[in-house]
């Protein structure tokens, strides 16, 4: 697998500044095409892999910021790759963008619960994928149209089946009023750009509020943040 798993030429020169990405897929032609497209757009493709165990090893060795991951992998399923990297890499775990041929509800939910930040089906175009990788790196959830509502609906179902939510003002007493306001909008499915427009603040300020909130609540990603907010009734109008 050495010939098809090499880092694309030219990416190393950008390693100091470009977004570090790793591509995992068991189909060499597809994997190499995705890697070439991302490298041509200026991203630093630090590694590729063709199976689950190889993906875990190479991700731990190269520390990409974003892992573009297929789910149907030999040796270890993509969802398990997510879980192992989250458990082994600590605070340096890559953000995961699933790129899969499947848009089935079970596959989407399993990936998100395993820690994936976003989920695209392989019918996405090159420009859409590039935008998704960059947004994933910024911590934004990115989904093929229709899938975001599916994920949010599942979290609502889980929350309604659990313990009675605490009142909103008791949900996160350590958060500022603005952090709580941003958290509520995040949980309602708004993008960072939409939140910035609604609150008349910058996109960067929204990102900072989300990162501060994750740290205060000791959560790892936006998926956990959304579930936290839903379970505590912060999405109620």
UniProtKB/TrEMBL annotation:
It comes from Streptomyces spiramenti. It holds the Pfam family GerE. Gene3D superfamilies: 3.40.50.2300. The lineage of its organism: Bacteria, Bacillati, Actinomycetota, Actinomycetes, Kitasatosporales. SUPFAM superfamilies: CheY-like. This is Response regulator transcription factor. Keywords: DNA-binding, Phosphoprotein. Signal peptide: none annotated. Residues 168-233 form the HTH luxR-type domain.
